[in-house]
Design brief:
Blueprint (H helix, E strand, L loop, with lengths): L1 H27 L3 E3 L1 H15 L6 H14 L15 H4 L4 H4 L3 H7 L9 H8 L3 H14 L1 H28 L29 H6 L15 H11 L3 E3 L4
Antiparallel strand pairs: 1-2
Helix pairs in contact: 1-2, 1-3, 1-9, 2-8, 3-6, 8-9
The structure holds zinc ion (ZN) (2 copies).
């Protein structure tokens, strides 16, 4: 059991960190640019662990997220737990998220959907990555590893929605709140499990800053991964820190 818990936390931590530093900070906010090889590793990981590769997902996600910042927790917010059911939050179709062609023009004029060979393969073989992940973790860690990969395949996209859209806007501290309507929360001042997204209110207050930690007692692990990757030449930090 202990082995299972350790493997689960490790895989979850890597996945959450990739979400935070790649999808959110890099694609969504252009705060950091990763080396193409690193970017491919991230996309491969998202495909293998979560099948996070429907056609045009990158443009959709960024549009959706930028609109979320524009209308945080107001009725026009495409993902607020204060206005939508969990089923709506967990759905990825444009219609339910309220993302229109007009929104794409407004929020993502700089983003093109991924159409390279890797992406076409991921789109076509959407669930093949799950098989690869299960076999890999079984070879590396035996039955506990395979169980972790199976749980990821079955439930972790839903858990990711729960943490990434519900928890960070509904659970935690409000000591950093600057806006009345914005309900984003500091889930915990020291981040680990959500790759830095625990400090979500700070990010809403300063969406251009790559470091989500703003006070002496706060720690943003995602920022430090970006720093390390930039130190070894695998990333370029583009925003203020
Ligand atoms: Zn953001
Ligand atoms: Zn938010």
């Amino acid at each position: 059991m202990l082995e299972f818990i350790i493997i689960f936390i490790a895989v979850w931590h890597i996945t959450a960190t990739i979400f935070s530093i790649y999808i959110h900070r890099s694609l969504g906010h252009n705060q950091v640019k990763f080396h193409p090889a690193v970017e491919h590793v991230f996309r491969f990981w998202l495909w293998a662990t979560l099948a996070f590769n429907w056609p045009g997902w990158n443009r959709h996600w960024v549009c959706h997220h930028r609109k979320h910042h524009r209308y945080s927790d107001q009725t026009q917010d495409p993902h607020s737990p204060h206005h939508q059911t969990f089923k709506q939050l967990n759905n990825t179709t444009n219609e339910l998220h309220g993302v229109t062609e007009e929104d794409f023009k407004t929020y993502t004029p700089d983003i093109n959907p991924f159409t390279d060979r890797a992406e076409r393969f991921y789109n076509k073989q959407k669930f093949l990555g799950f098989h690869f992940h299960i076999v890999l973790l079984f070879v590396l860690f035996g039955i506990p590893g395979a169980c972790v990969a199976i749980i990821f395949a079955l439930w972790c996209r839903t858990i990711a929605t729960f943490t990434g859209k519900y928890v960070i806007h509904a659970v935690g501290f409000r000591y950093a709140q600057q806006s009345e309507s914005d309900q984003s929360r500091i889930v915990f001042p020291i981040s680990f499990l959500l790759g830095g997204e625990e400090l979500h209110t700070n990010h809403h207050n300063n969406p251009t800053a790559i470091n989500f930690a703003h006070r002496w007692f706060e720690f943003d692990i995602g920022y430090w991964y970006c720093k390390i990757l930039s130190t070894v030449g695998l990333a370029t930090i583009l925003s203020r820190q």
